[in-house]
Amino acid sequence: MKIFIQLVLLLALLVRLGTANEAHAAGAATCTGKFPNPITDICWSCIFPISIGGVQIANFGAQEDIPNPSSPICSCGTNPTVGLSIGFWEPARHVEVVRKPFCLVSLGGVDMDPGIAAPEAARYTRAEGDGDGGAFYQAHFYVNPVMYWLDVVSDFPCLEHGSFDLAYLTEVDPLWKDDELTLILNPEAVLFANPVAIAACAADCVAASTGFGIREMFWCAGCQGAIYPLDGLVPYHLGGVRTAALLAQRLTAKMHRELLAWGWHGQSGLCGPYFLPVMDKTAYKTQLTYPIPNTDQEAGKCCQPFGRTTVTWGAGKEYPVRGEDFAFMLFRKRNCCVGY
Q1: Cβ-contact 49, 65 below 8 angstroms
Q2: How many domains in the chain?
Q3: What is the rounded average pLDDT of the residues 335-339?
Q4: Contact indicator for 314, 326 with CB cutoff of 8 Å
Q5: For the chain, how big is the Rg over CA atoms in Å?
Q6: What end-to-end distance do the CA atoms of the chain give, in Å?
Q7: 178: domain range?
Q8: What average pLDDT does the segment 20-43 reach?
Q9: Which of 39, 217, 255, 298 is the 20 to 30 Å CA partner of 193?
């Protein structure tokens, strides 16, 4: 009887240790990061080209651009103020993709856990063993009008005013880890969940890798896959950089759908921002700022349009433990009427 009791106690101890190890493994994700240094971590050439009307007046390294309003003259207001139509790429938003919930990588690795239960990042192995399978990450959206708070250009009316601010946490969004629940935001996703629509994204991948993606193919994320569903579940995980680039694109599209991000480009943007519930993916360029800032200029460029293949710029940007979270600066296209 005594031996039986000892065996029961030993078994209970082993179960307890196993549970503790599982809990430790579930919370094993580290929280590290770095506030982006505006001098060394941001590729300032991405603000080019600068245009007046449809004519480029400044460029550096043959930076890519989308069409601008053709006329150099514009007017805004009830009592119209006549001005010049200016176009450039404004670094104004920041997206990070993280493994540990409430880990603010872009604020130096601050663990802001308020005690709210939220799923950690995971990578799912396929039963048939044909690759890494899927993945899940949390993501955060920042307001970061870096040119304004650095006072890079004084008294320029086309810069968004504000400071670095955390705008959105997916940890408190129940739609971020539920493919079905997120249909509340994007019911049109069912129209593109078929082989034909998915295969068509190959053309968007080619376009994004040589320039900008195809605006009309709004359901495609270029070489990263599909925009839909607008959540953190990725069916094919082929490396952290690729998955992070996809989720940065999805979260930005989600912000547009929730009217937390607006359009600032084109003829409609000359006099101010406007509602754009379906994101125009050609209005954004991205630059990796963490863990390894992508400031090395390949062919004169260190930022990429949404959907560009990570093969050309993502190599060596991920490493174990401290280099498995990612942050991107978003350069958005800005057209503005600068009045006299």
Answers
A1: yes
A2: 1
A3: 93
A4: no
A5: 23
A6: 96
A7: 29-339
A8: 72
A9: 255
Q: Which helix (H) or strand (E) holds 166?
A: strand 165-169
5 found inside a domain: no
Give pLDDT, residue 60.
85
Q: What is the mean pLDDT of residues 175-182?
A: 94
Q: Are 162 and 149 in contact (CB under 8 A)?
A: yes
Q: What is the pLDDT of residue 3?
A: 42
The CA–CA distances, whole Å, from 107 to 33, 37, 128, 171 equal 7, 11, 40, 17
Long-range contact pairs involving 222-226 (C-beta distance under 8 Å, separation at least 24)? 222/281, 222/305, 222/306, 222/307, 222/308, 222/309, 223/307, 223/308, 223/309, 223/310, 224/249, 224/307, 224/310, 225/201, 226/192, 226/198, 226/201
**DSSP designation for 138:** E
Q: What is the pTM of this model?
A: 0.88
Contact 259, 275 (CB under 8 A): yes
In a domain, 334, yes or no: yes
What pLDDT, on the 0 to 100 scale, is given for residue 303? 93
**Residue at 327 is within a domain:** yes
Average pLDDT over residues 31-54: 94
